[in-house]
Amino acid sequence: MKAVGLYRYLPISNPEALIDLDIDKPAPAGRDLLVKVEAISVNPVDYKVRAPKDTVEKTPRVLGWDAAGTVAAVGPDVTLFKVGDPVFYAGSITRPGANSEFHLVDERIVGHKPASLDFTHAAALPLTAITAWEALFARLHVSPQGADEGRTVLIIGGAGGVGSIGIQLAKQLAKLTVIATASRPASAKWAKELGADHIVDHFGDMPAQMKALGIPQVDYVLMFNDTDQHFPTAAELVKPQGGICTIVENERPVPVELLKAKSAAFHWEFMFTRAMFGTPDMIEQHKLLTEVARLVDAGTLRTTVGEDLGRINADNLRRAHQMLEEGRAIGKLVLTGF
């Protein structure tokens, strides 16, 4: 089957950073679904895994952790899906990725595709929807039923993939006042269209901008961009007994002592945790994606496709990686069909 992958971890400018492959088609076992991949989207995790290092793979490594497709075969223990079902999912970081014609994924982290979306627009949602949902509702314990209506959230990185769905969840479900960061007119426009009440520039003086809005502190901070750079500002802006959740790994020690006087909470969100450790509640991601699909079909949430880059091949995937590395993407980058 066709796939895109790598043997060596190289700068994206190198043509061999991602290459077209022909590899064996896998077979499902246990609770696996074999999915015929129709569309994928690309996330920062892809280029971070692909980042240059000395390792050389003996067999090709396939990346990609966002997909939509059709169930082609099922393992003997599958109970949630049948052959022919259209699905969407993010998969597991510990298994081969979805940049291939056929892909194995555990049914417990898969959802039925929203009926109102084609495969391309559905592929933009899983990883970011799971990440934003878990960050806001599971880590910060915000009510998805609107019980915290009127409270405030600052979303740092509002126009990125996770920010794009995070704004919608915070506004449409949680009923929060949403302040999103964006540094360009196009990204600010995108965040406003998704429901942000206010925009601040994360390259400027955020505390001063927040004071100018009449919102000097917020109940929650969702940090979807550069933990090292933004944590001190987040600590300054969060209210006493508020909470911060980040999804971005740090390179320097996080100065959590800045939160002590405020008794403020600090959380990590990593959407691969359940699949990576085989936690007993893995099926919660199936339930989560099922609810996201329902909300999309009801018109409460919208897809977050920013740009369709064409067919799934090495050239287009290298382009997607480069756009993400350069911070030029708004919303999600998607590719469709081999």
From TrEMBL:
Superkingdom: Bacteria
One Pfam family matching this protein: ADH_zinc_N_2
Domain Enoyl reductase (ER) span(s) in chain numbering: 13-335
SUPFAM superfamilies per UniProt: GroES-like, NAD(P)-binding Rossmann-fold domains
Family affiliation: Belongs to the zinc-containing alcohol dehydrogenase family. Quinone oxidoreductase subfamily.
Name assigned to this protein: Zinc-type alcohol dehydrogenase-like protein
Keyword terms: Metal-binding, NADP, Oxidoreductase, Zinc
